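Hi team, as promised in this morning's meeting, here are the two structures we talked about. I've kept the exact order from the run log so nobody has to guess. The first one is mostly here for context; it's the second one we should focus on when we meet again. Sequence first, then the predicted structure tokens.
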Amino acid sequence: MRSSPGVYVWGALATLAYGGMALLYPASERLGAFLLLYALAWVACWGASRTANSLVQVVAGAILFRALLVPLEPSLSDDIYRYVWEGRIQGAGANPFLVPPTSPELAGLRDAIWERINNPDATAIYPPLAQVVFRLLAMLGGVTLFKAAFSLADVALVLLLGWSLQRRGAPVRLVVLYAWNPLAVVEIAGSGHLEPLAILPLVLALVALPSRPMLAWSALAASIALKYAAALCVPVVARAARPRLPAVAAATFLLLIVTLPYVDAGRALFDSLFLYTEKWRFNDMLFGALDWLLPSHWWAKVAAAALLGALAVLLVRRRVAVESAVVILLTALIFVSPTVHPWYLLWPLALIPLVQWTPLLIWSGTIALAYTFLYPVAGRAPFDMGSWVPRALQMLPILAWLAIDLRRHRRPPRYTRASAETERSRRNSSGHVAVVASERRPGHTNFGGSMGNAESPRGRIVLMMPALDEEEALPLVLRDLERVRRTTPGPHVDEIVVVDNGSRDRTPEIARAAGATLLCEPRRGYGAACQRAIQHLRQDPPDVLLFMDADHSDDAEDIPFLLRPIVEEGYDMVIGSRTLGHSDPGALFPQARFGNWLATGLIRLRFGFRYTDLGPFRAVRFALLERMALADQDFGWTVEMQVRALQVGARITEVPVRYRKRVGRSKISGTVSGSLKAGTKILSTLWKLRSPGAATPRMSVRTP
């Protein structure tokens, strides 16, 4: 795919920003200028995420930007001097968990590194595997080598993220959101924090789930042994891939091996960790409010832990996709923590290419304001630690975006029939059909406020059609599908599944002769036929499942309209709206129009989301279908899907579609009894699903 020239413009802007930071050294003495350059780099990162099409571009930029800052001495943090010191004293035979830097027995090792160590009275806080890494690196060099090693690990993390996106068929440009993000570049290449060493195995664990559980659990154990924050992810990982004995044994063995050189420290392994949780306080968010409301600092910590635990339980019970759950938990951990250093945010930020979440991306830009607690800006003194000004400045852009997104998420775009038809007719010379109903322009990366499942796949797309006595219509539908496949640019359907619902004519023979996958479902009912297709597809799950009627009422030319918001913009479900589009005269019966109006009105009244149609022509992520656990066997299938999608927090939009007079006689809306049965079923289904917070039934869920 040819790259947009815009990516080179954004790359040049980012190079200017990071080059300016290099010339600005030390940044702590020119914090105002540094923050401006940081903002410029963040804007360049956002812009490149919309234009980059090559992983080579992304990785080249990541290497260049880090190379500009690696040679410089850190000026915004002194943690790396602690790393180097603890590595050196291990070479001299000392245990960093027992001997603090101020210990007299280490007096002979004191040098310029020792003079810059923070909290010299405390023993080591970093876990055993981190200490092993420190010792190995200290044998080879000092601060610059440490920074270079961490930056190489960061580039490896970028490559892993890019590989994962390519494997899913998602746009590789999303890797830019981490690879070029100034938070990652500044805190790793500039300040030399060890975060990528621990985040890399965590991401590997999530990518390996659930196909390689032993690798996943071993990688998670390595991440925990490098930094304890990864331990928070254990419950959601266990929910996605239950640890079996070999995986548990491998993870336990790894933890024991790396701890063995320091085992003589005993309980002292955690002394500084406990001291950190008791005494450190910096840039706290929710914790500050809890500390103000509750009687003591101890009660604030208990409340924060309780909130975090409740969130973990909720995510496990609701079966939120594992990557999304990890991002939510890690972000929540930071939000309730008494200490919120900017580099802490790297943990959830590293997963943002896999789970796009705009509030987190915005925070990665505003969190640099935390340095105003430490260093002067524009001649004024640093803010007092009790000041809420830097905290408010960090959070206000996030709250503003959430308010806008909530309004947009609850209100699908409006389309008149005239404008919909005008847009549907817009084609270029190659026959390209424009996407008209997504809330964002084609090519624009979508960052949903919903965290249910936000990746953007282009893997296998399957079309399923329930069919009952469609001998006349089915050949026309199959012909249209083949024509669209040959003449219209993708995305295209990779497989057609026809579910015969008890036909007494030649419907099965026609489907089989056309090369479609034929399934038989003797139980009558639209929902039963759909469930039969889903059961079959679990053997080889597609990324997207497209629902279409076999009676020729749906127009195959609208398929790109339905697929592109999912494939290109990250939506979870797209409804083909006959109300927003065009219905041929006599195609949509009055009773069907009334039923749609009533049902969608009730949904809006109860759930606050405005659907315009319950049309069966729709595209849904297969993972979302599994998470919704639909149960209806009959006419309530479509309304149940639309309500369940709201309950699990899916990202939904509608597109206008054409609706034609069906070929043959309607089995539902074409008869009085069928219309009454369908209406009764839809209303009863809505009554059963009336609670906005209703939980989905328990079931085995495939993690996307």
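And here is the second protein, the one for discussion:
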Amino acid sequence: MFNLIVSGNGNAWEKPPYSMDRSRFGEYSGEDAQGISLKESASLQALIGIPTILMYELGAHGDNVRLVRYGRLTRIELAGKNLQFNFTPDNERAYIPRARIQEFAESLGMDQFEDYRTHWAVKDGDIPTEVIEHGQPEPPQRDIKLVSSELSEAIATKNDTRAAALKQEISSFPPSLDKAVEYLRENFNSSQSFEALKHLGASQEDCRTLVESVIEQNRFAEIKNNRPFSLVWLLENYGAPTEERFLDDAVAACEEVLRGILAKHSALESFTEDELRPLWQCISCHTLKLRLRRVINGLLARFASCQSAEGYWHLEDQPDLRITSMMVVVLQRLGNDSHRTAIRSAVLWLCNNSPYKNADLFESRDLVAMVLALEAVRRSGMLVDLEHVTAAGDRSVHELQRPLGYWQAEKWEKADTTVLVMDYFSRSGSMLEQVDGFLLMSRDFFRKAEELAYEGGVNNRRLSAIAAVHAMEMFLYGLFERREDLGISAFGNRGQQTLGPRESLATLQRRLQEEKILVDNRELSYRDQLSTLVGHRDMVIHRASEISFAELDRGMKAVEGFIRKYGADLMKIELLQ
């Protein structure tokens, strides 16, 4: 048996002496407690030395109301209307996370109302090892995660006084991404900013539960009307094949938005942020980039044509920092090599006509423009010469975090702005520069391969296989160029021609084995599937053979997996982002 002692006084377990109203003794107890009586004080001695949990009621007020203490009683005495006792914490597991108590409440024999009742229960059996195995000898440090968890509980129990105190404590923490994560976690349900899931460490099971709740609780139509692009992102990443029709409906809603903007601007000289932002949102959704490529390309062409000779885009005849920043990133992420000159001139304008050079000069701090401009610089290929810009800008973005952990910008929801900032910082080290010939060709070949495969048909599958092999081949050449330490040249035969995909794969594998990057003489990941795809490509070119949908699909997945894995492992870039 074990003691479970709960108090509604938020300071009861902070220092001895400890006591409990004798009228509350025995409540919610098991059969083992029947032999213990307050009328026979000697029987109370049976409780000395047995495992004991001290905890507070949910809704109690105090600095440490979420701390659960584990140890043993060393003395029990009757003192008037109270029971007084001494408690010795366990040497190794004195403090248990409250969440463990709630998770294993049934195994502990707890009633649903015990969390809200001051009482002393004597429970049958033993405390499950799962409850105490995460205990620690000292109280957990009051970090942002712990305080945010307490805030969630205070809000859930409508403890306004406690919630206000915890918000003040959160405000005292310095700016950090951890602080932002906890803000997003706390406000996720109300924000409908599904992209926040990237930063919350949510399990696949939790994300599936969210998808099902969106579909089953009649929320789908509302979200499709209000936030179709976020809805596509959610269904693309966590939807099931049986929910394909919901994804199709959400994609159709996004297409309607984009076509409405395109129809409005048959000829234009400028556009608004509200008209540009849907195009920018397509960046995060592979499904939209693939299925809506034609309308996306139409908008790209229209908007790109509005660039001024100086490099900026304007609104109401005035250069607009936010629109220019967003448009550059749109061209970098959705455009192609033909936009290189436009991108370069816009980045130079941003750096020459913005205060990023010196953080002290900030007056109107447009956070969205800042973050997008910093991303544009990092992708521009001029980062080495503009590190003073990104360094000052990064510091300024951190400084603009609000005390409760979010970032705020005009016309943007707090959660969306916070996700924007966190996306930037999480990807800042892996952004693809827009001047790398081989790698940019690899990205564009793979895009074309996907488009052709999606459109379907025998000839499109043939062309898709050819493009996919070129994507893999250009990636290898770009890798050789960037990783000079591997000592591999993309060119053989005295520099007269490139190695070709098969020889490139073999050469890379051999060098990685020699460098012990591939241990135990293992092969490159996906090599067999890639070789098979190259074989299909050769048969298409030399014999006009067909390639089946299944064969192409396997080859495409291998190319994508290979580029993602070795782009990250060997170059620290995300080529297909």
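Starting points for discussion:
The mean pLDDT is 89.
The first strand starts at residue 2 and ends at 7.
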